[in-house]
Amino acid sequence: MQATELFIKRPVMTTLVMLGLLFFGIVAYLGMPVSYLPAVEFPAIQVTATFSGASPKVMAASVASPMEREFSSIAGLQSMSSVNALGSSTITLVFDLDRNIDDAAMDVQAAISRAEGDLPPEMDDKPSFQKVNPADSPILYISLRSDALPLSTVNDYAKTFLTQTISMIPGVAQVLIYGEKKYAVRIRLNPMELASRGLGIDEVREAVGAANQNLPLGSLEGTEQNLTVDADGQLYHADEYRDLIVSYRNGQPVRLIDLGVVEDGVEDERFSSWHNTKGNLTIAVKRQPGSNTIRIVEDIRAKLPWIQSQLPASIRMDIVHDASEFIEESVQDVKFTLGLAVALVILVVFVFLRNIASTFISSVAIPFSIVATFAVMYEMGFTLDTFSLMALTLAVGFVVDDAIVMIENIVRHLEMGKSPMQAARDGASEIGFTIISMTLSLAIVFVPIMFMAGIVGRVLHEFATTITAAILVSGVVSLSLTPMLSSRLLRSRSRLAESDALFDWLLGKYKASLHFCIKHRFTTLMASFGLLGLTVFLFVVVPKGFLPSDDQGFFMGFVQARQGISYAAMEKKQKQLIPMFAGQPAMEGQIQIIGVPESNQGMAIGILKPQSQRKTGVDETIAALRGPSNSVPGMACYLVNPPMIQIGGKQAKGDYLFTLLSADSKQLYKSAEAFEEELRGNNLLMGVTSDLQVSSPQVEINIDRDMASSLGVSVSEIENALFTAFGERKVSTIYASIDEYKVIMQLKPEFQVNMDALHMLYVRADSGDLVRLDAVCSIEEGVGPQTINHTGQLESVSYSFSGVPGTSMDQITQVVAGMAKEKLPDTISTMFEGAAGAFAESMNSLFFLLFIAIVAIYILLGSLYESFIHPVTILSGLPSAAMGGLLTLLVFGYDLDLYGMVGLIMLIGIVKKNSIMVVDFAIAEEKKGVSPEEAAFNGAIIRFRPIMMTTLAAIMGALPIALGMGAGAEARRPLGLAVVGGLALSQVVTLYLTPVFYTYMDDLQSWLDRSFGHAEEEPEQAV
User: Fold this and answer.
1) Which of 311, 497, 585, 607 is the most exposed place for a label (fewest CB within 10 A)?
2) Are 265 and 186 a contacting pair, CB within 8 Å?
3) Which stretches of 96-206 are assigned E, i.e. beta strand?
4) For residue 605, what are the CA distances in angstroms to 137, 141, 282, 385, 683?
């Protein structure tokens, strides 16, 4: 090849070009960010709206639905769901992966503006949105507490200083305060005192609002100066409200303190957080989709010492969990794996070559190919993550292949008596086309993956691009640097290692067995079809998964009690989990959050010790806690190991999320309750729960409108009285220098335990008389929804559950889908969401992807060899490779998950490289007049050494991944096992099957030439 000749003649140019690649690769490596996974998050936006006191039905119908109608027209919207509870609606919008999050935010803002005309005018605040996926786990948990200051004071520092400072750091999407204790003045009224003084609760509300004012007062403009007018219209603390005069009765003032209790309190009394055994505020930091976790956490940590210096000395700030630590540890372990793979591959090369110069020449291709690939990754905007580094680790076994084949061929020419320069020229020229064929055919395997759609395509895109770049660079190095170094470093007497006794014995056995297989080639061919059938069978029976379980050093618990439970009872129950968690040897700490997302629910976050300090993994710890944590009567705890990739915008309380949708809400709720019982009864499922909460105890007040009208009482006055009495109504606002605080009015706690207080409330009629509430209303107990959920624009019910140990994702999805088809009416549609939904999509596209890859390889090989037949010969070993990978996964008890899929796709490229070496040599032999059988035999024997070397090099490159050591390594093991197992089996099968297939394909080619070639010659003879 002329290009190779140029590189051999000009060693200085070749050296400088290669050093240039090395230099730019190192610079790119130093400037690349580090992350755990590629940027695979769906762009997500969360819209929140509040309407104090509004029921879930009102929130769903009058707040969520108008906005959902507008959101549905936004381009690129993949899914939309909402949760409507008492006084709040939360709408989650998830967009296509290619949708720019900032552009989507602008569309969301425009849609909210269009919907505002249809929203209730009484809403306190306009809807707002955050660019954040609520299903994503926070990247940092910080505990804030004080033994000297009340939590309301600590909350002031957290809300107005700490969270605001962290929010301004680039990449931070949201800073949440769990257990928020914002200061508020609480007025708790006694309805009996109100009645005895002839006061309506609305009068008290109006009096408080009138007494606490912060109005603009203007200024006095004189001839010489301007005076600003100010007044002390604000009341800041509870003791300032106690003596407030509400009214006069019999000439005596009625003060607020006479009607109940006025105290300093907090805004939300049904929300708290605990770090271990201490009450605290938990600060949770969420990142924007696509941002770099490690960089964000580094910026936050750099800011924390300054933040701590600005806080009172009694406030203690501790980092409870840092997600970046696992990411850094995992990436460092993959880097170590990469280094180990390089060392093992070089060792294999030396063992085979037993020549220092040859080993150096072939091994130098590894750092040049790998480091130069960093420059490509940098230009593509990739990160140093587990997938890109795994790609480079696996590429180590490939990039050395071309160099090995080149050196082996050059040394063969040296052994013919040629000079090193001539041997390099002739050997490189002879083998150059083979190396190009091997390189391009291996690289093209990964091209279909680069354009694969969906979440799997986004995850694998970086992997495929990185390994393709490394392969292409290695081809360039093999055709330039390798022959140049060979021409200068090898000597005329340089020889490859003489085969030792073991290799001679192995080669002898191979010759005899290969001769036997070619002699009985029909039996061998039938055996290959048997392997194909066995491969198809293994594809069917091997358990299939999607995202493997990963030990990230923490787990989540979702706590749920009966609907309608009081906060005090909920707190008492959930705090029983604290000693249970603390009793686990692997636990380092815990956070218990009570009252989120609903009053009967909570969250538990278990923080594990570093892996080096514990004997059990996160899954084992969860299994040990699952029984005790569900032993509290009236409370269920669902423990989950968060997946490495959060898919969708819903938070699942298990490994699976299955949703029912219907336009008929009555039919939906009726069927959903029955179907939940069916799921609970299935012995393959555990931890079954749903977001169906439509049986919350409630008081139903039916207004007698005729009676109310005759007495001069309006519906508005009735509902206002009820809202003030029981709705924790904000009756005034305190505008302090650092924040705004609410003045909240309600009845005293003892008058909220049952319905009796409803009979003590009075409202003012138009005549001025007080009318007791039960005179115009009938009061009875009932049940109603605690939350109403929408998916799309339809009401929905979502189930969360996990499979019992030993079950696979495909098994669970098939079982649940079958149950739904059998048990649910046709009016209800179903869908898997989250990882299970992406799994179904990926399984549908996997086989098509494999087919596309094989077609692409066939087209390339057919074009390179100008043959329709020999590409089939080269691809003949693929079934054995797939069978080896699947069989290995089955033996070691792993599912065919995302990593296993990557391994199988890689095997396609690796295995055919061996076949190319055999076929390429056989074709050259046959052109010399050798028979097809002898040509195939010679090709297999001559290429036996490089085939063994390249295969063992590829195995050694994947072996560290298969061993699975380090943080997150367990999840990556299926990839290494699939590659190692597939290569080990295909190595044996290909060495026999490819020569046999070559003879059959050559016979077919000869028959085609005789049948069709003669027919084409006849017209020429006739002319």
Assistant:
1) 585
2) yes
3) 128-130, 140-146, 172-178, 183-189
4) 11, 10, 11, 26, 28
Strands 729-735, 740-747: pairing is antiparallel
- Of 865, 15, 234, 982, the C-alpha closest to 535 is 982
In whole angstroms, give the CA distance from residue 794 to residue 664: 9
In the chain, the amino acid numbered 336 is F
> Hunting for tokens 């898997």 — which residue is that?
832
Supply the pLDDT for residue 134: 67
Per-residue DSSP letter, 276:
T
Q: Which run of H or of E encompasses 356?
A: helix 356-363
H helix and E strand count, the chain: 35, 30
Residue 662 identity: S
Quote the tokens at residue 931: 């028979």
pLDDT tens for 979-1019 read 888 888 777 777 888 888 888 887 887 777 777 654 444 44
Q: How does pLDDT run across 145-181, given as a tens digit for each residue?
A: 998 999 999 999 999 899 999 999 998 888 989 988 9
pLDDT tens, 570-595? 999 999 999 999 999 999 999 999 98
The encoded tokens of residue 531 equal 């392997």
Structure-token pair, residue 894: 């792993």
Name which of 988, 842, 939 is nearest 453 in CA terms.
842
Q: Which two tokens stand for residue 787?
A: 């939350």
- Give a three-class secondary structure readout of 878-903: HHHHHHHHHHHHHHHCCCECHHHHHH
Helices 454-489 and 356-363, axial angle in degrees (round to 10) = 140
- Which of 120-129, 200-209, 900-909 is modeled with the greatest confidence? 200-209
Q: Which of 133, 141, 136 is closest to 284 using CA atoms?
A: 141
**pTM for this model (two decimals):** 0.77
Which amino acid would we find at residue 175?
V
256: left (phi over 0), alpha (psi -120 to 50) or beta: alpha
Amino acid occupying residue 259: L
Residue 495 has pLDDT above 60, yes or no: no
DSSP string for 848-870: HHHHHHHHHHHHHHHHHHT-SSH
Can you read off the two tokens belonging to residue 431? 């083998």
Helix (H) or strand (E) holding 509: helix 501-519
Can you spell out the DSSP letters for 940-971?
HHHTHHHHHHHHHHHHHHHHHHHHT-STTHHH
Counting residues of the chain whose pLDDT is more than 70, the rounded percentage is: 95
Backbone angles phi, psi at 631, to 5 degrees: -95, -5
Q: Quick check: 261 and 748 in contact, CB under 8 A?
A: yes
Amino acid occupying residue 635: M
Q: How confident is the model at residue 258 (pLDDT cuts 50, 70, 90)?
A: very high
- Structural tokens at position 430: 């002879």
Q: How far apart are CA 799 and CA 817, in angstroms?
A: 13
For the chain, give the longest Cα–Cα distance. 133
Tokens of 245: 């005069």
Phi and psi at 80, nearest 5°, equal -140, 130
Torsion of CA 253, 259, 264, 265, to 10 degrees: -150
DSSP string, 965-1014: -STTHHHHHHHHHHHHHHHHHHHHHHHHHHHHHHHHHHHHHHHHIIIIIH
With b for 16 or more beta-carbon neighbours within 10 A and e for fewer, the 664-696 pattern comes to ebeebbebbeebbebbeebeebbbbbbbbbbeb
Integer Cα distance of 416 and 429 in angstroms = 16
Residue 752's nearest CA partner among 744, 740, 765, 761 is 761
Calpha distance 55→420 (Å, rounded):
88
The DSSP call for residue 544 is B
Look-up: residue for tokens 């930091």? Answer: 285
DSSP 465-505: HHHHHHHHHHHHHHHHHHHHHHHHH--TT--PPPP-HHHHH
Alpha helices in 262-322 (DSSP H): 293-310
Pairing status of strand 128-130 against strand 44-50: antiparallel
Instruction: Report d(CA 217, CA 233) in Å as an integer.
Output: 11
